[in-house]
């Protein structure tokens, strides 16, 4: 160690070319101690650096974790805020304020806040207690719910009340038919005048022709289909045709509210009950067909007040009683079809007052008795007259209208074979079998 110390030179001495004296033993010991101390301090400093790095990384990790949590919470708050402030972004959100949106699944539909529906009901169901339609299966409730919450046309109670009323009434009709729309644009955002291809409106957007001729609800559609009373809301309609729709139940009395109607066809359905007397108040009606139903009762005497009526069809029902004499007041009547009913008594001579009559069909009323009145035989315009399958007697040879058998318009006179009738075109047995004469 002394040798190593003796060879020790300082940098300054080497520079100047001088040899410095070797350090003493005490100096060497001091140097050794300083070296050891320097090494210990370096090791301690290294440890401090590592601890510092670990602490920094730990703090950074904690900061990142807190940032992620705060960011995630912020997103949730934003989504919640958006769902409240932007209801239009929700696929099932209504345009009107309510506590919960109705859904199509009636078995799990939430309880609705009915305030909006009640406000709409005051327009489309005036004078009707909404509690009468709280059954969610009724067509009225479903139409009202649709109009209030789901109609993309977004009409409000401040809009045209007649448009609202007719839109609601057609929607009710749609639901009453088991949501069968014959492939047309029912419940679209367009005007209700475009929903059905044979429904026509005037220039003011009011329904004037409501034509569902021969549109039967498909057999695979379950349910009982009743013509809803909202049919009476089409106050501007001039023609209403539901022939062959297979409606059931009674004819709604509200049909008497169609004060503008001139043609009303309800034939070939399953209507029951009696003909509503309200129909008799339709003063402009010139065409009434309720044939091929299951109507009962009698022909009311008030029918004579329908002075404009030209066509009256009661074919194939179970109407009973006698023919009212007031029928002779219907001076415009040209077509009278009462076949296949349960009429009884005699043919009133007042029918002879119907100078415009061209078709008189009374066949298959086994209860009709007596003879054909002479006054009826004087009707010169008769082209079709059916008296077979009745209990009438006598002869028809003196009928003035027999001369019409050579008319270019065609002529047909049918009676039972027991009746003398040289001008008859067919002779019929009591069982209904007819042969040409």
Describe the overall structure.
- The termini are far apart.
- Residues 1-43 and 75-111 have low confidence and may be disordered.
- α4 (115-124) packs across α5 (139-150) and α5 crosses α6 (161-176).
- The protein has a 12-stranded mixed sheet with strand order 1-2-3-5-7-9-11-13-15-16-17-18, with no helix packed on it. A 3-stranded parallel sheet has the order 4-6-8, with no helix packed on it.
- 26% of the residues lie in helices and 14% in strands.
- It has helices at residues 2-6, 11-16, 25-85, 115-124, 139-150, 161-176, 374-377; strands spanning 199-201, 207-211, 239-241, 248-250, 263-265, 270-273, 287-289, 294-295, 311-313, 320-321, 335-337, 342-346, 359-361, 367-369, 384-386, 412-416, 426-428, 434-436.
- The radius of gyration is 48 Å and the shape is elongated.
- It is α/β, with parallel strands linked by helices and 437 residues long.
- It is built from 7 helices and 18 strands.
Q: Please write the string of helix (H) and strand (E) elements.
A: HHHHHHEEEEEEEEEEEEEEHEEEE
- Briefly note the structural class of the backbone: alpha/beta
Note the main sheet.
12 strands, mixed
Strand order of the largest sheet: 1-2-3-5-7-9-11-13-15-16-17-18
Strand tally is 18
Give the CA-CA distance, first to last residue.
160 Å
The portion of residues forming beta strands comes to: 5-15%
Approximate helicity band: 25-40%
């Amino acid at each position: 160690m002394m040798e190593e110390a003796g060879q020790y030179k300082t940098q300054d001495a080497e520079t100047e070319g001088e040899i410095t004296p070797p350090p003493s033993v005490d100096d060497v010991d001091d140097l050794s101690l300083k070296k050891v101390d320097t090494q210990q301090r370096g090791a301690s400093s290294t440890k401090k650096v590592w601890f510092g790095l670990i602490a920094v990384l730990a703090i950074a990790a904690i900061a990142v974790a807190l940032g992620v949590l705060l960011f995630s919470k912020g997103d949730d708050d934003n989504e919640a805020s958006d769902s409240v402030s932007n209801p239009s972004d929700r696929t099932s959100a209504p345009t009107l304020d309510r506590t919960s949106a109705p859904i199509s699944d009636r078995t799990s539909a939430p309880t609705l806040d009915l305030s909006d529906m009640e406000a709409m009901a005051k327009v489309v169901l005036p004078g009707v207690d909404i509690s009468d339609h709280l059954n969610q299966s009724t067509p009225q409730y479903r139409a009202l719910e649709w109009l209030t919450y789901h109609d993309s046309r977004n009409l409000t109670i401040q809009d045209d009340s007649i448009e609202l009323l007719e839109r609601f009434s057609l929607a009710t009709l749609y639901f009453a038919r088991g949501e069968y729309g014959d492939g047309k644009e029912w419940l679209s955002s367009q005007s209700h005048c475009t929903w059905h291809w044979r429904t026509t409106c005037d220039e003011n957007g009011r329904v004037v022709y409501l034509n569902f001729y021969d549109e039967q609800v498909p057999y695979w559609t379950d349910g009982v289909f009743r013509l809803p009373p909202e049919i009476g809301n089409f106050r501007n309609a001039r023609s209403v045709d539901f022939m062959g729709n297979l409606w059931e139940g009674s004819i709604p009395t509200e049909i008497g509210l169609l004060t503008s109607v001139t043609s009303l066809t309800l034939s070939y359905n399953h209507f029951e009950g009696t003909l509503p007397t309200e129909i008799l108040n339709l003063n402009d009606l010139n065409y009434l067909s309720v044939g091929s139903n299951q109507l009962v009762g009698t022909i009311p005497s008030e029918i004579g007040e329908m002075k404009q009526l030209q066509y009256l069809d009661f074919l194939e029902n179970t109407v009973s009683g006698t023919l009212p004499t007031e029928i002779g007041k219907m001076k415009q009547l040209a077509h009278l079809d009462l076949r296949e009913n349960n009429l009884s008594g005699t043919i009133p001579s007042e029918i002879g007052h119907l100078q415009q009559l061209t078709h008189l069909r009374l066949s298959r009323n086994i209860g009709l008795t007596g003879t054909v009145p002479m006054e009826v035989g004087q009707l010169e315009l008769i082209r079709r007259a059916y008296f077979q399958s009745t209990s009438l007697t006598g002869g028809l040879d003196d009928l003035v209208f027999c001369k019409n058998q050579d008319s270019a318009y065609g002529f047909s006179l049918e009676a039972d074979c027991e009746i003398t009738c040289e001008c008859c075109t067919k002779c019929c047995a009591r069982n209904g079998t007819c042969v040409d004469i």
